[in-house]
Amino acid sequence: MRWSAALAVAASVALAPGLGDAASGWEAGGWSGIAVPRFEVSPQGGISVSGQGQGGFLWRWERRPAECLSWRWRVDEGPPPTRLDRRGGDDRALSVSIGFAGWPPQASAWQRTQHRLAQASAGGRHLPRAALLFVWGGTGDEPRGFESPYMAGLGRVFVLRPATAPRGVWHEEHVDLGALWRETFGGIAPPVEKIAVTSDVDDTGSRLLARIEDIRFTSCPRRS
Known about the structure:
Blueprint: H1 3-7, E1 12-13, E2 27-29, E3 38-41, E4 47-52, E5 55-64, E6 68-77, E7 92-100, H2 109-120, E8 130-137, E9 146-147, E10 155-161, E11 171-176, H3 177-184, E12 192-200, E13 207-218
Parallel strand pairs: 8-10
Antiparallel strand pairs: 1-2, 2-5, 3-4, 4-13, 5-12, 6-11, 6-13, 7-8, 7-12, 9-10
C-alpha cells in the first residue's frame, strides 16, 4: 500500500457522473500511471468498487475523537493471497484507513523528515501524521499490527480478512481505534482526521467486485 493511499493524499480524480451523493463528502483519488477502478457511492453511503488490474481510493475528512469504528463489507471477486508486509506485489481487495492528527509518541526525527518529504509532494493536501489500516487481503500470516512497508513506521496494518476469506457474503467488523493505537504506538490516540477506502489490484491484474457499507463511528463500551 502506497503512503498516499493510506493517508488519502494522491492526486484527486472525479467520481464518475451520477456515482454518488455530493453531500457525502467522499473524494476519489489515484496514482500516476495506474487506472482508477469504478467507485459508486449510494445515497445511503454504501460504496461499491469494480474493475480489473486497477488501484485507487475514496477519502473524506472525519475530524473526531479516536472512538470505535464499525462497518460491513463483502468481496465477490478479488486478488489471490499476497504478502502485505513487504514491498511489491502487495494487492488487496479493500482496506479502510484511518488518518490521525498527531504523531506517535516515539516518532523519530527521521520519521518526521520522511513525513515532511511526503507532505512536500502531496500537492497541497494535508497529510495525517499516522495511520491505522484495516485490510481484506493478504495471506493471513502477516504479523498483527505490522508496519506498513511504505509509511516509514507511521502506519500499522491489521489484516481483518485474508484473501481466502469466504466471498459473496457480508462480514461485520468492529475496531477500537484508541485501544489499537495504544497497542501499536503507545500512549493516548490523537484525534482522527481522515478516513479512506482503498482497493489495489494492479500488481496481480485481478478482477475486483467488492462493497462496503454502514461505516460508522461510535462511542466505545466502557471497560470494567
